[in-house]
Amino acid sequence: MQWVGLPPLAAAVSNAGGLGILTALTQPNPEALRQAIRETRKLTSKNFGVNITLLPTINPPDYEGYAKVAIEEGVRIFETAGNSPGKLIKYFKDNGCIVIHKCTTIRHAKSAQRLGVDVLSIDGFECAGHPGEEDIGGLVLLARAAQELQIPYISSGGIADGRGLAASLALGAAGANMGTRFMCTVEAPIHQNIKEKIVASTEQDTVHIFRTLHNTARVFKNKVSTEVVSIERRPGGAKFEDVRELVSGARGKKVYETGDPDYGIWSAGVSVGLIKDIPTCEELLKRIEKEAEEVIDGLAKLKVPNEKAKL
Ligand code: NAD
């Protein structure tokens, strides 16, 4: 949700009954995050969280600075993702915060559990952005979470509707995390063309870049991502410097500003194939809840023939 997790969307998600999340690195520096938190508070009286993602970046961010400012501003729910968040987790827990850590393997989930996180966000291979390097789909990953984890977990990756939520609950999750689906809402602060592009796309419209650099990222399939993949496949492979200009986040940001889907790299999950409209966050969450209840009720009815068979 880099460049998308901004105050209007985080507030709209929280106002609709979800937990909106500001993405810290979308802000150029910690003081800008402070202003974004204040702006969000003006838009919602509900809780919201801040995400801090630790992955390779062109310019190293001041992670501790972002964390400190958010705590000073009274944020008490954090989502961490990416590499070794140990230091940050300790800092958040020392300050009485709830920490949700996103991970793509059970090994990492167990290690985060040992470090004291409160909730795990179990991120299947369907997800937008960085799915890790192990390629484990959500179905197995969530079922493995049910076998192995002692703390609550939510599903992440591939969730965009009530069926996805019901499936997540069936797999032991306490809820679901959605990114791509929220990009395609009225309140998402991105160009209308990009929302319409998502609606028009199918589940075959994402691609992995950075596979050969061991920093795999699922992004929308467009001119730039196709070029990056072909550079990576050249004999002898590619170094980050060979694709740096093409993949820079600053260039990706322009996609959302100008509405040109081919301008740069932008994250998108396989769930683009499930997205058929651009509702408000409130319409979306109400619909997902209703659909999930219908699916669960439908499944409950399946028990009846078995009960009769026993008689
Ligand atoms: P950026 O402009 O610094 O980098 C652009 C892309 O190149 C990012 O995907 C980054 O991970 C990758 N990258 C940078 N240096 C690299 C290196 N030396 N080797 C391999 N890959 C390298 O990043 P940005 O777009 O400003 O985003 C800021 C941070 O947020 C990055 O760490 C990015 O990965 C992360 N992010 C995470 C997700 C997610 O799925 N959790 C989605 C979007 C962005």
Automatic annotation (TrEMBL):
<keyword id="KW-0285">Flavoprotein</keyword>
<keyword id="KW-0560">Oxidoreductase</keyword>
<keyword id="KW-0288">FMN</keyword>
<dbReference type="InterPro" id="IPR013785">
    <property type="entry name" value="Aldolase_TIM"/>
</dbReference>
<protein>
    <recommendedName>
        <fullName>Nitronate monooxygenase domain-containing protein</fullName>
    </recommendedName>
</protein>
<dbReference type="InterPro" id="IPR004136">
    <property type="entry name" value="NMO"/>
</dbReference>
<dbReference type="Pfam" id="PF03060">
    <property type="entry name" value="NMO"/>
</dbReference>
